[in-house]
Predict the structure of DoxX family protein.
Amino acid sequence: MTCYDRRDLGLLLLRLGTGGVLAAHGAQKLFGWFGGAGIEGTGQFMESVGYRPGKVSATAAGLAEWGGGALLAAGLATPAAGAAAAGGMAGATAVHAPAGFFNEQGGYEHAALLGLAATGIAVAGPGRLSLDHAFGNVLNRDWMVPVALGVAAAVTTAVVGMRNKQVRQAAEPGGEQTLFEE
């Protein structure tokens, strides 16, 4: 019989908590569950904060959160799951950054914490209480961590860069006035 240690139990709890919160937020975006706006409403919000096209952005954010979160919770494809979730949270952080750090003022605290936790899990691995371990870690190799995080960083940098350009253009005189309005 295998004896699991504190690290395995700690990683399981961290994966379940982080992955569960991410998956719930993604389900709000994709399916309208838990009081969410679904693709249509989330797409309109994404457009309003500079992510265009809105429905495509809502789908990408929803999949990063829901898919990445579910995979993290299960401990499956951990490097890719953590990287996808971290990329999604970097995009959310860009939206909330102008409001400062603390969540009470609409800041980026929550998104940054989820992104950091997802990255930490991707780096540390899922532990032995995971599907990755059960399947012989075929989707959790050491080389996959920097590749997954590098790809996510490159894609996120491009997407957030395009979004920031949209925000700057909207702030110029005569620019679009719908950004940040609800």
